[in-house]
Amino acid sequence: MKIVGNILDITHKRDTQHQGIEVHLDRVEYIMFKKDGHYRQDFNYIDDLDAPLVITGDRLARIIDKKLPEGEYDFKVYDLVEGEYVENPDKFLSILLIYDFEENQHILSSLEYSETVPVEEFKKIKGAREKEKIARKNKAKRR
């Protein structure tokens, strides 16, 4: 996980001027909601990526929430669909920055990226990743 550029330049409105800002993610959390009787339960699957997922600043807009602790920032994520930016309510990015007074700069403490997906897609993602892990283990044992 790393950030290239000043993530604090991103405002509450999405702007194409922030293309130089990059968020490199090494982990994605997939969330699904399944009805269990009368209640909806959430299930999650954390996927450690082989190659980092890069989200550019032009696809982000900061969520203004005065209840967030100092240094924590939440972002809406936009998808590029046919040349237009469309907000995707199923994607969410949260960043925690800690300020170092000696170095006079912000330090990235944590990055959380989550996507809410339908039940079928959740099962496909989880099944495919589990098969890949088993294949890698078997390949390592053969060596």
Largest sheet: 7 strands, mixed
Q: How many structural domains does the protein architecture include?
A: 1
Question: Which stretches of 5+ consecutive residues score pLDDT under 50?
Answer: none
β content, as a range? over 45%
Q: Supply the number of helical segments.
A: 1
Q: Which structural category do the helix and sheet elements fall into?
A: alpha+beta
Query: Level of helix content?
Result: 10-25%
Order of helices and strands: EEEEEEEH
Q: What shape does the CA trace take?
A: globular
Write down the Rg. 18 Å
How many beta-strand runs?
A: 7
Summed over residues and divided by their number, the pLDDT gives a mean of: 89
The N- and C-terminal alpha carbons lie at a distance of: 31 Å
Sequence-ordered SSE layout with sheet pairings:
Layout: E1 2-4, E2 22-36, E3 39-56, E4 60-63, E5 72-81, E6 84-100, E7 105-116, H1 119-142
Parallel strand pairs: 2-7
Antiparallel strand pairs: 1-2, 2-3, 4-5, 5-6, 6-7
Tell me what you see in this structure.
- By secondary structure, this protein is of the alpha+beta class.
- The chain has one domain.
- The protein contains one helix and seven strands; from the N terminus they run E-E-E-E-E-E-E-H.
- The chain has one helix at residues 119-142, and strands at residues 2-4, 22-36, 39-56, 60-63, 72-81, 84-100, 105-116.
- Strands 1, 2, 3, 4, 5, 6 and 7 form a seven-stranded mixed sheet that branches.
- It starts with a strand and ends with a helix.
- The mean pLDDT is 89.
